[in-house]
């Protein structure tokens, strides 16, 4: 029988052990429509105690485009110190292929990703590189809609740059597909896809550098806590860099992780985490102080 993970009732129970938070955004802070109750106070209280909060997101847009979205959803800027996104990391990959013809696969809202870069855009059948930020219409489409396009890219050996490793997110109770699902579908048929963001090292390097700049000195990995709702990105990333992990079990894994209409099923949660091979330092349904 799998060991029961440590269930906590409030972040205050473990906050003193850490100086730095790498906090996921979608699924932890908001659901695409509104900020979850209690999140603002939890992050603000940690900062009032001397901690630093860096929001680390697989958003396929630069950090400067994410902050206004958080403003609209109701997260005050006093709740965090900085934002680092997979879009920030992706821009360096795009800059390296600036001399090639690029096809943008994703919604227009992600076009800020290219701002300030000298990019030569092209249609899909003429492109040398495809940059995937998501589905064109994630409200109606699935990765299956892109089969013909991906096979055409494969026939010409067109490499893909994926700006968001997430497979899915929960948007107001509805699961929608992300760029990572397209990249995985392309890899599954033999395509080449460079995937930016969590759980890979470059985004964490950027986050640690950003935190050090804000604090005036580096923070040890052991005094850093990653907060997230995804086993594949947040928990795997925390394990890879050797920092603590707080699993928010009420996110995209809610049903698998033992969430019903009442209390958490501790046995189901333990079995789920054991099956995934991850051991977070603590678990709570939602981030509250």
From TrEMBL:
Q: Name the CDD domains on file.
A: HAD_like
Tree of life domain: Bacteria
- The positions making up the signal sequence are none
Q: Which SUPFAM superfamilies match?
A: HAD-like
Show the coiled coil region(s): none
Listed transmembrane segments: none
Record-linked NCBIfam families: HAD-SF-IIA (TIGR01460), HAD-SF-IIA-hyp4 (TIGR01459)
Matching entries from PANTHER family are given as: 4-NITROPHENYLPHOSPHATASE-RELATED, OS08G0542600 PROTEIN
Question: Know the name of this protein?
Answer: Haloacid dehalogenase
**From which source organism is this entry?**
Labrys miyagiensis
């Amino acid at each position: 029988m799998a060991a029961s993970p440590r269930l906590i009732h409030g972040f205050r129970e473990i906050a003193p052990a850490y100086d730095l938070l790498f906090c996921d955004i979608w699924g932890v802070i908001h659901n695409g429509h509104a900020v979850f109750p209690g999140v603002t106070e939890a992050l603000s209280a940690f900062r009032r105690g001397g901690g630093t909060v860096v929001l680390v997101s697989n958003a396929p847009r630069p950090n400067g485009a994410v902050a206004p979205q958080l403003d609209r959803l109701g997260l005050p800027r006093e709740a965090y110190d900085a934002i680092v996104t997979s879009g920030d990391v992706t821009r360096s990959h795009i800059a390296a292929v600036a001399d090639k013809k690029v096809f943008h696969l994703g919604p227009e809202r992600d076009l800020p990703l290219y701002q300030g870069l000298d990019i030569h855009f092209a249609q899909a059948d003429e492109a040398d590189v495809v940059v995937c930020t998501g589905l064109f219409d994630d409200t109606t489409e699935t990765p299956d809609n892109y089969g013909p396009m991906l096979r055409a890219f494969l026939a010409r050996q067109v490499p893909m740059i994926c700006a968001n490793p997430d497979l899915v997110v929960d948007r107001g109770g509805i699961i929608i597909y992300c760029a990572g699902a397209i990249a995985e579908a392309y890899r599954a048929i033999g395509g080449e896809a460079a995937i930016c963001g969590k759980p890979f090292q470059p985004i964490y390097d950027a986050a640690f550098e950003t935190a050090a700049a804000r604090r005036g000195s580096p923070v040890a990995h052991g005094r850093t806590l990653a907060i997230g709702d995804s086993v594949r990105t947040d928990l795997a990333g925390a394990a890879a860099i050797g920092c603590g992990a707080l699993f928010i079990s009420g996110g995209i894994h809610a049903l698998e992780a033992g969430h019903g209409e009442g209390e958490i099923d501790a046995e189901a949660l333990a079995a789920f985490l054991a099956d995934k091979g991850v051991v977070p330092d603590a678990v709570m349904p939602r981030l509250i102080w």
